[in-house]
Write a structure and sequence with these properties.
Elements lengths: L18 E13 L3 H14 L2 H15 L2 E9 L5 E8 L26 E13 L5 E13 L8 H8 L3 E9 L2 E2 L5 E2 L14 H6 E8 L4 E8 L18 H20 L17
Antiparallel strand pairs: 1-5, 1-6, 2-3, 3-4, 4-5, 6-10, 7-8, 9-10
């Protein structure tokens, strides 16, 4: 995939007023058919997606993008679900350390720059099929920044931390800034695709498609695991205790759920297991 060269460094009269927002819809698909399995699933959700853990994750994101947390608000819901909002305060720009290249971002022990007037939010949404045992958990994460660097640098960390089955990504740049000559600039870094900011191992694990509107600085990428282990979808159950027919049926239900989310539409019941992969 071709990557455009770096843009010349902009000389600005003051603050960079471009607003860049990364929205991540992250899906976790599970199978819990019996009341006992559903209890195991609920315990997993409470442990994995509670407000305290989500706050830790967003705190790591703030360190990756180089922002200081000003205020944190969070809440756990009954029976499942949580919301967290972090307000990030102003910091001096470290312009000499800001990378404009379309490359994967660092992990949380590295700070690359400082950002101003930013916020991070996460909301979670549990949902279960009433009869077929499928449970789908969605985490919606927004990283909104003002400044010279894109929040895309936090993308690899978020995907790895949530061990995502599916990911729907939206990145958009709004507003403009002026250079010292008064010329407007509506984007300040090169981007051909969100995929340019993903690490090699993530690109190898997922099938991906793009829908981009370059003239409007809108970038959209959908991602689905190429393969998954049935054991990672089960709660309070062991695939070794199931017949091959049971394993195949459950895996087909999970794959159907993933494909329907990927396509944003319902699939016909007669589709075979092999045809359920979106990009097969």
């Amino acid at each position: 995939m071709a990557t455009p060269g770096p843009l010349p460094r902009l000389e600005l009269p003051g603050f960079n007023h471009l607003t860049k927002t990364l929205s991540c819809n992250i899906y976790d698909i599970g199978y819990a058919a019996t009341p006992e399995q559903q209890e195991h699933y609920t315990a997993y959700i409470d442990k994995t997606y509670n407000a305290g853990r989500l706050t830790e994750i967003l705190s790591d994101v703030s360190r990756i993008i180089g922002a200081k947390i000003l205020n944190t608000a969070h809440h756990n819901y009954e029976l499942q679900g949580a919301s967290v909002t972090l307000l990030l305060c102003d910091e001096p720009l470290a312009a000499e350390r800001i990378a404009h290249s379309a490359s994967p971002g660092p992990m949380p022990d590295a700070v690359v720059c400082h950002l101003d007037k930013s916020h991070l939010t996460v909301h979670t949404y549990p949902e279960s099929h009433p009869d077929h045992g499928i449970s789908t958990f969605r985490a919606d994460i927004d990283v909104s920044t003002c400044g010279r660097i894109s929040p895309l640098k936090a993308l690899n960390y978020l995907i790895d931390r949530f061990k995502s089955d599916l990911v729907v990504l939206d990145y958009r740049v709004r507003g403009f800034t002026r250079d010292v000559n008064g010329k407007k600039h509506f984007i300040d870094h090169p981007i051909h695709s969100i995929q340019n900011f993903l690490s090699k191992d993530i690109r190898e694990r997922y099938q991906m498609i793009d829908i981009n509107v370059y003239q409007e600085h809108i970038f959209h990428t959908k991602m689905i695991l190429k393969d998954f282990e049935l054991n990672n979808c089960l709660f309070g159950a062991n695939p070794l205790d199931m017949s091959l027919h049971e394993q195949t049926a459950i895996k087909q239900q999970v794959r159907r759920e993933m494909a329907e989310i990927f396509y944003s539409g319902n699939l016909h019941e007669e589709l075979s297991m092999g045809s359920l992969h979106p990009l097969a």
